[in-house]
Backbone:
């Protein structure tokens, strides 16, 4: 039979472990892409009306689509990849490469198209990349890409739309 003292010790120990875990591993939930001030600001209801459920989950709630599910992963035409939230041109097909990861990958973004922030979710620190105009979450940047930057912008295809070049 458990005594009241044993229950109190167990509760205190559990609370202490939870506190340490939070301080070591950061917040329970990551900051959402919609936090902050951007040129395009919509309410949650407006974003839900504008985006598909998958787009909303990725762009506004920082979800990740399953690898190898985006048709944009296989897109080879010349053109521009735009933010699916606000239509800002963010990545050129000239910077796209096949990383073998299952997500569209680029070695650089267009000038003044994206912003980054530290992402401390999933028990690690990564660099998150998002749209500078609407704050939509695209994915993450890693240091294992090709020259000339050595960067891999690993993006969720559902966060992007593709517009082929007119003379392609």
Residues:
């Amino acid at each position: 039979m458990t005594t009241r003292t044993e229950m109190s010790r167990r509760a205190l120990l559990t609370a202490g472990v939870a506190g340490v875990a939070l301080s070591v591993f950061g917040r329970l939930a990551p900051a959402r892409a919609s936090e902050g001030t951007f040129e395009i600001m919509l309410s949650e209801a407006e974003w839900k009306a504008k985006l598909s459920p998958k787009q909303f989950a990725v762009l506004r709630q920082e979800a990740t689509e399953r690898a190898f599910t985006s048709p944009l992963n296989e897109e080879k035409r010349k053109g521009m990849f735009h933010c699916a939230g606000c239509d800002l041109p963010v990545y050129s097909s000239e910077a796209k490469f096949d990383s073998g990861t299952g997500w569209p990958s680029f070695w650089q973004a267009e000038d003044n198209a994206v912003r980054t922030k530290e992402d401390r979710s999933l028990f690690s620190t990564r660099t998150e990349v998002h749209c500078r105009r609407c704050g939509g979450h695209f994915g993450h940047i890693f240091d294992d890409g090709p020259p000339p930057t050595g960067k891999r912008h690993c993006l969720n295809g559902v966060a992007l739309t593709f517009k082929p070049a007119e003379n392609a």
Summary: The mean pLDDT is 84. The longest helix spans residues 4-25.
